[in-house]
Amino acid sequence: MRVLPIGAGTVRQAPFPDGPAAEVLVDEQVGGGQLAAAHVTIPPGGAMPDHAHGESTALVVPLSGELLIASGQHQEQVTQGVVVLLDHGERVRLANETNEPVTLLAVFASAGFVRALSSWPATTTTAASTGTSGRGGDGAAWAEVHRQVVEQATHAPSVHNTQPWRFASYAEGLDLYADSARQLPVLDPRGRQLHLSCGAALLHAQVAARARGLTAEPQLLPDPADPAHFARLRLTSGKAPSERELALADAIALRHTYRDAFSTERLPDALLERLRLAAEAQGGYLRALTHPDDLLELQSLLSRADTAEQADPAYRQELAAWVHTGPADDGIPCAALPADPERGSSLRLREFAPNAAGPPSAGPPDGSPPAAERPDVVVIISDDDSPRSWLQAGQALGAVLLQAAHEGVMAQPLAQATDLPGSRQRLGAALGLVGTPQLALRLGYPTGAAAPGVATTSRRAVADVLSGHGQDSAGG
Ligand SMILES: Cc1cc2nc3c(=O)[nH]c(=O)nc-3n(C[C@H](O)[C@H](O)[C@H](O)COP(=O)(O)O)c2cc1C
Predict the structure, then answer these.
(1) Beta carbons of 423 and 417 less than 8 angstroms apart
(2) Is the distance from CB of 271 to CB of 421 less than 8 angstroms?
(3) Does 276 share its domain with 407?
(4) Domain for residue 41, yes or no?
(5) Which of 36, 288, 368, 411 could form a disulfide with 111 if both were Cys (CB 3.0 to 4.6 A apart)?
(6) Mean pLDDT rounded to a whole number for the chain
């Protein structure tokens, strides 16, 4: 028998505002991996937003105060004298809507979930004092929130995986800046694709923040004197995240660029409609190219633009500098390139390693159109061709890709069609668009080679892209 005191161990603070504090009483080692327990304090007005317990089944034993516990539509106010059993995988939200702290014992079998609690930052306060102070360990907790939000932001797509962003913590949130040293001078002399990439990273940060119950309304280009200051994202306590918001945050780990052939299954109209709404919620537009004539126009523009780019030695040299065979924390590794370079697509895809893969995959050698994959294609459109619109188009791109990944759909940009201002104009005119096309995407269901969630590209460490709270940014 072992008697374990409550209050003698390390108290850890949830890395989000007004979250609980937890002291792990029985960790994986003590409980042999089968059983674990934590003493948890939820401050007045505090909450543990919607979460599941991973591999663990959980038992919640209220010790003091009135605990609100909600699972789906079912919610209960519980006090000492009951135990609450939570099934494996069940999502719950715990909240304290009273003026007194709530304390509870949480027991987990198996022990996996305490690993999450053990990763919370340690506080110097005890659980009891955290309970009455409302926001114990605030500075450290906010720094950790910023770190986590930036970590998820950096999973965003970026042109050639250049990751051209820098983040800085300020008192109430995060600032996003361009990292102009990572701009592509040949492909992207005006920094349009750099803006698109940073817009996508901003959207990821918004999604990551909402999943933590924070409001995340960005202000674009907040400083007219500094065009490299792309956005200010104020992060404050907000309402608990919805199921959809949590699912979008989960999709961050599922999304990656898919360059293999898609299955022949077409995307349902209702899904395309959801993608359109996702783009519009960010101030962009999305047009699905459902008419064969529109696809032919895109196909022809794409081929012409790609041929012109491939003929430029400076373009090829710049691209080669971002394609890696060895380990690197940016750029495109060979593993991210198509498994089958001969895959026939009705669309000219960007050739990242022309020497390794031979001529562009434009179909059979006799010049007849390839019979293979004819994916769904959409175009992200902005109001105009200004830096603000580029950022919004990037946010729209991020939102569309996360919604798609959430629904099992993967995508590949067909950026050659929009790389040059002339191509953008021609594409806009050919499709009869109002606004400026910013990026075309092929979309579809993967055929298995590179399943969702199997990331092939790397990212720079958070410490390299986030400054503030005592951290230095190497991003310049
Ligand atoms: C503005 C922009 C343009 C891109 N253009 C292309 C492209 O033409 N072809 C392509 O295969 N991928 C393209 N990508 C995808 C990037 O190469 C990809 O996001 C990056 O390598 C990171 O990999 P991940 O998306 O798998 O995380 C583009 C991405 C962005 C944001």
Answers:
(1) yes
(2) no
(3) yes
(4) yes
(5) 36
(6) 87
